[in-house]
Amino acid sequence: MDASAAARATSAVASIPRDDDGPVFRAPWEAQAFAMALTLHDRGVFTWPEWAAALADQIKRAQAAGDPDTGETYYLHWLATLEHLVAAKGVTTPDTLRRYRNAWDHAADRTPHGKPIELTPADFE
């Protein structure tokens, strides 16, 4: 991950969990979601103010639906915001996102714990 891009993101989006060295993650997928947002920002898909507003809206909706907002679900909101923005910006469609989410779930179900999850064509059937 580009350290300078991560530093710009953490200064632009105040809610990012961080320590003195930069953003912190509880699981590898959180770092991957963070890196995807950095890449999409760098490619001009959204601005950091636009991202921060969309993330804040996502968190507010989750809180209204009962999310206890303990911080443990922060990157779930981050991922939901990514999905929303890439669909809203026409980078992909909600159907494509749903197709890949279902394929990922299928692949995860057949993968033994501790092994890397790999998508195959059969996961999309």
TrEMBL record:
InterPro entries: CN_hydtase_beta-like_N, CN_hydtase_beta_C, Elect_transpt_acc-like_dom_sf, Nitrile_Hydratase_acc_put. Signal peptide: none annotated. Residues 15-103 form the Nitrile hydratase beta subunit-like N-terminal domain. This is Nitrile hydratase beta subunit-like N-terminal domain-containing protein.
